[in-house]
Design goal:
Length: 108
């Protein structure tokens, strides 16, 4: 699993599959909507990655710095920040909870 953060567009991306497999596994399905969390799937319905736009809404500066510096504790910081995130939007809450569950399972 690889995590990147692009400051210029405030977007975080969690690569679930190896980036080198992108040539083999073309992304064919993305979740859509106005909320800033999207899941990218391959044609075989495998989760390729998770895109989180407006990352500063979800993550502290310290967490984003850990991602940028490739700190080994970044994934734990991401999970903790998402656990403390509050939203009134049920779709957004569900998306955040799905990311937490997935990352927690991958990290254990």
């Amino acid at each position: 699993m690889k995590i990147t953060y692009d400051k210029s567009i405030d977007a975080l991306y969690v690569y679930i599959l190896e980036i080198s497999l992108l040539k083999t596994f073309k992304i064919v399905k993305k979740t859509e909507g106005d909320w800033p969390i999207h899941f990218d799937f391959t044609k075989d319905n495998q989760l390729f990655g998770i895109e989180i736009l407006e990352s500063k809404r979800y993550f502290s500066k310290q967490t984003l710095d850990k991602i940028i510096t490739k700190d080994n504790t970044a994934i734990i910081a991401i999970i903790n920040d998402l656990k403390s995130f509050k939203s009134e939007d049920n779709t957004e809450k569900e998306s955040v909870n799905n990311v937490i569950k997935f990352l927690t399972n991958r990290n254990s």
